[in-house]
């Protein structure tokens, strides 16, 4: 008996000794600015080898034997600031900060509705960070998108004119546009990007491929997400004044700061320009506010507001006839978003609310007279008449949204599930008659699982159940796979993804009461199926990144207008169209030396109309190329800095594309063009810098849309002031 007690006591003492000799590392993986990085694989090698996956707020917990360890993270282009760890017995808390390599990954939100590194997702993405946006010094937001793979843009004239973005051959209304997570597309329609300015932006995210599994309607071809600037450490005051060609005058000011758990950013902008054609002047006043608060370590709240008011002259297709000198377009937009997030352990709860409203008025007070379109030796087949509307045509729409999302980690699974409700309403039509005042409420349920298999395989599975007031209930899935063939800095990553997209009809298509264009309440949603596969390679310790992605998108049940009776010209809307877009995207980015970098991209697009929904214009006939989407497009950019001087140059190349004059001239194609832009900045001291920007330096004559001449050579310059800690 005493001997048995001795053995038992020995076992207890041994277990106690072992317990006191074990080490527990409880930490968090964050970026250099403190952003938590979820779903990152951390591998520790030393007395033993363990790997662990960070949770929703970047936190992890792992038990090890005491000793020295080498820590590595599976995040190409990012490295641990302190890779050597020494762990003693007991629990140790540590924040692991990832520093960027010359070419690094950027955290994005749009692909998963939460912070994520692109290399863990398996989908094709692009991110423009604040430094890149400010260096580019673009006059309009569309100019930022021109240099991204898989995105084509077209603008009907100068800055402020109607602007469209085509993601992977989709219609301009097939990309969901988000501003700080709030959808801003008009219900069932597009978001006119022409008046959007690169103002107070933290970053721009683009996801290519159907993403309705997360967002429901609109995301047939992809997502474009604008994120408002957030405050850095300390306080900052900034102001800019510039002037240039086409009577360009722009003034901007902003203030941001932090105090305790609060941060804020406030900015205002005023822009005026005459553009090129008669009656094409544009002016806009914009404001932006972003404010956040942290309540302890678990709860955060953020509110974001953006608004602008603009006026644009609309002279029409001046390349083929007289300008309309009295037509105009006025627009006021407001976007607001709020998020309350609580994270405890491996569980995160988020409540979100959003508002997006636009009030647009197209006016044409006087009859400017008829004209016969001409283009060189071509003469139109019919006379074009002005259609004055003194009262104006109104388009006032509003989208209210609210939702809840749960994120939780279970082992190597990062699960997200949410519910969303959205109410849409409008007041549309000619002010000379009673306005159309439709409304509808939609509901969506979604779920997503991101799982790490081993250390090198990331799998994402998701789907959404969408209940739409116009077309009923639909289910849309998505799957993506990212496989790391080689790890760490010079990583090789294989990506494969596929998904489905849906889009609701717009208000006129569903509710219009006009005899000549009666709404159809039985319309089905427009649908898409998208697939892509890509390979990315990093070399020379992440100083060079190259990638290629092949894609195939099918767009089904596209809604088109159809004449039902050619005797009375009664018309309505039907699901007729079917188009296909396939091709590949090439990307390269290099930073061969400190302060110098260059990037390039090329997109090949085979876009074809398979079934036509339009019998009036041959450009829409089956077998034709997709309107205003070139088969070949690309860009090259270089940026450099030495001492107080920095600058950059960009070359944009756009190939021949299908188009139409829509005036009876018989034009079916638009010529390609090349455009060269450059900019330079000089720091003169005490927070001041001078800058100059030149666009279309070769003074090329071209039209992004037939009939609307683009701006010729333009030069602008100014002074910028920064007061930083």
Any overview of this molecule?
This protein has five helices and 43 strands. The relative contact order is 0.12. Helix content is 6%, strand content 58%. Residues 4-20 have low confidence and may be disordered. The strands form eight sheets. The chain has a 22-stranded antiparallel β-barrel. It has a five-stranded mixed sheet with strand order 9-14-15-12-13. The protein has a four-stranded mixed sheet with strand order 4-1-8-6. With 725 residues, the protein is mainly beta. Strand 18 and strand 19 form a beta hairpin. It folds into three domains: 20-100, Carboxypeptidase-like, regulatory domain (Immunoglobulin-like), CATH 2.60.40; 118-223, Ferric Hydroxamate Uptake Protein, Chain A, domain 1 (Beta Complex), CATH 2.170.130.10; 224-723, TonB-dependent receptor, beta-barrel domain (Maltoporin, Chain A). The longest helix has 20 residues, at 2-21. It is globular and about 90 Å long.
Which key phrases capture this entry?
single chain, 725 residues, mainly beta, Immunoglobulin-like, Ferric Hydroxamate Uptake Protein, Chain A, domain 1, Maltoporin, Chain A, 3 domains, 22-stranded antiparallel beta barrel, 43 strands, 6% helix, 58% strand, globular
Please provide the count of β strands. Answer: 43
Number of domains: 3
Mean pLDDT across all amino acids: 91
The CATH architecture of the largest domain can be named as Beta Barrel
Provide the gyration radius in Å. Answer: 28 Å
Largest sheet: 22 strands, antiparallel, barrel
Instruction: Specify the CATH homologous superfamily of the largest domain.
Output: TonB-dependent receptor, beta-barrel domain
Helix count from the secondary structure assignment = 5
Give the amount of beta strand, in percent.
Answer: over 45%
CATH topology (level 3) name of the largest domain: Maltoporin, Chain A
Through-space gap between termini: 74 Å
Residue windows where pLDDT falls under 50 for at least 5 positions: 4-20
Share of helix among residues?
Answer: under 10%
**Shape, per Cα inertia axes:** globular
Q: What is the CATH level 1 assignment of the largest domain? A: Mainly Beta
Instruction: Label the structural class.
Output: mainly beta
């Amino acid at each position: 008996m005493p001997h048995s007690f001795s053995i038992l006591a020995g076992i207890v003492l041994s277990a106690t000794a072992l317990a006191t000799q074990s080490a527990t590392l409880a930490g968090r993986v964050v970026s250099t600015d403190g952003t938590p990085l979820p779903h990152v694989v951390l591998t520790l090698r030393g007395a033993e080898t363990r790997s662990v996956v960070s949770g929703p707020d970047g936190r992890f917990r792992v038990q090890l034997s005491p000793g020295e360890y080498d820590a590595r993270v599976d995040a190409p282009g990012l490295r641990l600031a302190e890779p050597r760890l020494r762990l003693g017995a007991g629990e140790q808390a540590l924040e692991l900060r990832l520093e960027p390599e010359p070419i690094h990954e950027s955290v994005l939100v749009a692909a998963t509705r939460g912070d994520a590194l692109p290399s863990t997702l398996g989908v094709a993405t692009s991110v423009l960070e604040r430094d890149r946006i400010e260096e580019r010094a673009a006059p309009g937001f569309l100019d930022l998108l021109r240099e991204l793979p898989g995105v084509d843009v077209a603008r009907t004239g100068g800055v402020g004119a109607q602007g469209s973005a085509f993601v992977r051959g989709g219609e301009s209304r097939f990309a969901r546009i988000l501003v700080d997570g709030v959808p801003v597309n008009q219900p069932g329609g597009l978001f006119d990007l022409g008046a959007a300015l690169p103002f107070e932006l933290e970053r721009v995210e683009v996801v290519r491929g159907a993403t309705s599994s997360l967002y429901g309607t609109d995301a047939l071809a992809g997502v474009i997400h604008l994120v408002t600037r957030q405050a850095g450490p300390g306080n900052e005051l900034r102001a800019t004044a510039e002037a240039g060609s086409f009577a360009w005058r722009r003034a901007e000011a902003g203030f941001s700061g932090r105090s305790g758990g609060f941060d804020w950013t406030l900015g205002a902008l005023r822009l005026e320009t005459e553009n090129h054609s008669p009656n094409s002047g544009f002016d806009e006043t914009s404001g932006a506010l972003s404010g956040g608060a942290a309540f302890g370590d678990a709860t955060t709240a953020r509110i974001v507001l953006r608004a602008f008011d603009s006026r644009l002259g609309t002279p029409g297709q001046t390349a083929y006839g007289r300008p309309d000198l009295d037509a105009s377009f006025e627009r006021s937009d407001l976007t607001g978003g709020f998020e309350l997030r609580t994270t405890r352990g491996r569980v995160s709860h988020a409540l979100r609310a959003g508002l997006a409203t636009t009030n647009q008025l197209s006016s044409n007070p006087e009859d400017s007279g008829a004209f016969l379109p001409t283009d060189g030796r071509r003469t139109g087949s019919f006379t074009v008449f002005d259609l004055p509307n003194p009262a104006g045509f109104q388009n006032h729409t509003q989208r209210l949204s609210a939702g809840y999302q749960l994120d939780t980690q279970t082992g190597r699974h990062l699960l997200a599930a949410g519910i969303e409700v959205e109410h849409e309403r409008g007041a549309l039509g000619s002010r000379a008659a009673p306005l159309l005042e439709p409304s509808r409420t939609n509901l969506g349920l979604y779920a997503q699982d991101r799982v790490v298999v081993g250390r090198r395989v990331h799998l994402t599975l998701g789907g959404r159940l969408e209940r739409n007031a116009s077309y009923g209930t639909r289910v849309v899935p998505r799957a993506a796979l990212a496989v790391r063939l080689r790890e760490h800095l010079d990583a090789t990553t294989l990506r494969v993804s596929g998904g489905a997209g849906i889009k609701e009809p717009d208000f006129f298509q569903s509710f219009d009461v006009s005899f000549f264009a009666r709404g159809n309440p039985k319309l089905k949603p427009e649908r898409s199926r998208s697939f892509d596969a890509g390979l990315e390679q990093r070399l020379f310790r992440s100083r060079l990144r190259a990638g290629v992605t092949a894609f195939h998108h099918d767009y089904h049940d596209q809604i088109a207008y159809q004449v039902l009776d050619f005797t009375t010209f009664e018309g309505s809307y039907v699901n007729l169209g079917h188009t296909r877009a396939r091709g590949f995207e090439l990307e390269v980015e290099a930073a061969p030396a400190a302060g110098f970098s260059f990037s390039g991209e090329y997109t090949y697009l085979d876009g074809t109309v398979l079934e036509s929904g339009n019998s009036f214009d041959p450009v829409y006939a089956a077998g034709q190329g997709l309107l205003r989407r070139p088969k070949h497009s690309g860009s090259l950019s270089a940026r450099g800095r030495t001492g107080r001087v920095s600058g950059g140059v960009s070359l944009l190349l756009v190939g021949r594309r299908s188009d139409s004059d829509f005036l009876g001239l018989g034009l079916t194609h638009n010529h390609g063009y090349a455009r060269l832009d450059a900019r330079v900045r000089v720091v003169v001291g005490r927070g001041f810098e001078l800058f100059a920007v030149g666009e279309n330096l070769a003074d090329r004559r071209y039209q992004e849309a037939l009939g609307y001449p683009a701006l010729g050579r333009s030069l602008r310059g100014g002074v910028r002031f920064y007061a930083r800690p």
